[in-house]
Design brief:
Number of helices: 15
Helix content: 40-55%
Structural class: alpha/beta
Distance between the termini: 37 Å
Radius of gyration: 20 Å
Number of domains: 2
Shape: globular
CATH architecture of the largest domain: Up-down Bundle
Largest sheet: 6 strands, parallel
Number of strands: 8
Order of helices and strands: EHEHHEHEHHEEEEHHHHHHHHH
CATH class of the largest domain: Mainly Alpha
CATH superfamily of the largest domain: Dehydroquinate synthase-like - alpha domain
Length: about 400
């Protein structure tokens, strides 16, 4: 296990009716006005918007709004929020939604404290040195954005979907009330679950040989998600299942599973998935259920051990060589995605074979990336071909 420093400063309010408990934190920080950031109708259907605005009204906190945040959030919506904050009178940012809304709020929080264009942070032309405080209410678990310091935003003009990372953009307080997720569409439960599993796999499959303790926590989370997702599809209103799903989502990508690793994990699949979402509008989770098995098959040819370990720990696969166990584990993972009605080929996303080169060019951008193995542009192209 490598030396490490880990600090997650986000205070978590978890459980039913915990929105009201947020008031004490806002009062302690003398917050008088928040910018509400949200997407569409889901927060009204779940009751989240009503609970949040009632709490704010009772505590005499004003709440101007930026709404209509889309999945795979866009930089223009971030710029709209930044402009609203810079107009004055805002003390904090309050996202109500899932990862796309939280990511937008984080970028607004950083961009509001910067004199230039917020996209500079994503292009690494500037570093974040300050951000507005964020108090969030989660309504869809997937990205762990409610408890991490990462924000992913798309810029169609640049044909780039990329991220910022900064200690300044951790939410100060996040509310996770699993009851807000009971009304989620089935597809969101499926794709959010795939994203959670992907975040874990990107740690346990990174080839790190000194992280057995942390890997075991990851395997347990994967087993939990593979039990919970099918059960939720049968019983979407089950609060206890929603609670396990939400807590696994928070733990998957809050930094815990990166402790003691040489790197924070191998996020090659996420990078290639981002190109699918950006260029073809696919749901983020759908891009991952397609690309992860293809990436795994390609990488396991030279690196079978982490996949064999996954087979043993998650799928009870013990027979054969490491190569055999790796192949069986990848098949089992793909079969699980199929069982929960997640796509596993680019064809299912409406992507044509002629589009594969465009995807590869967008994902690689002439660079080499990856942790388990370094991917050259030609490797990336071959993985997309495997995913077709």
């Amino acid at each position: 296990m490598q030396n490490f420093f880990w600090h997650n400063p986000t205070a978590l309010l978890f459980g039913k009716d915990t929105v009201k408990d947020l008031a004490a934190h806002l009062k302690a920080d003398n917050v008088k006005s928040v910018l509400l950031v949200y997407g569409g109708k889901g927060i009204f259907k779940s009751g989240a918007y009503a609970q949040v605005t009632e709490m704010l009204t009772q505590n005499k906190i004003s709440f101007p709004e930026v709404n209509d945040v889309k999945p795979n959030p866009l930089i223009n919506k971030v710029r709209e929020g930044v402009a609203r904050v810079k107009a004055g009178g805002i003390d904090a940012i309050m996202p109500i939604g899932g990862g796309s809304v939280f990511d937008t709020a984080k970028a607004i929080a950083a961009g509001s404290c910067y004199s230039g264009d917020v996209w500079d942070f994503f292009e690494k032309k500037a570093s974040i040195s300050k951000a507005m405080p964020i108090y969030g209410i989660l309504t869809a678990s997937a990205s762990s954005s409610e408890v991490n310091n990462i924000a992913v935003v798309s810029n169609p003009d640049s044909e780039l979907k990329t991220s910022i990372t900064s200690p300044f953009i951790y939410p100060k307080v996040s509310v996770i009330d699993p009851s807000f997720q009971i009304t989620l569409p089935e597809k969101q439960t499926i794709y959010g679950g795939v994203d959670i599993i992907a975040h874990i796999l990107e740690r346990v499959l990174d080839g790190d040989e000194g992280s057995d303790l942390i890997d075991e926590q990851g395997y347990a989370l994967i087993r939990t998600m593979m039990r919970v997702i099918p059960d939720l599809l049968e019983n979407p209103k089950d609060y206890d299942l929603r609670s396990e799903y939400a807590m696994a989502g928070a733990m998957a990508h809050n930094g815990f599973l990166s402790m003691g690793r040489e790197t924070r994990g191998d996020f090659s699949s996420h990078r290639m998935g981002h190109s699918i979402s950006l260029l073809f509008g696919a749901a983020h989770g759908a891009s991952l259920s397609v690309i992860m098995p293809a990436w795994a098959r390609y990488m396991s040819e030279d690196n079978p051990v982490p996949f064999a370990r996954l087979g043993e720990a998650v799928f009870d696969i013990y027979d054969g060589s490491d190569e055999d166990k790796a192949a069986d584990a990848i098949d089992a993972l793909e079969d699980f995605f199929k069982d929960i009605k997640a796509p596993t080929t680019l064809r299912e996303l409406g992507i044509k074979e002629d589009d594969i080169q465009k995807l590869a060019d967008n994902a690689s951008r002439g660079e080499t990336f990856g942790v388990l193995g370094k991917l050259e542009p030609e490797d990336v192209l071959e993985i997309y071909r495997l995913a077709y």
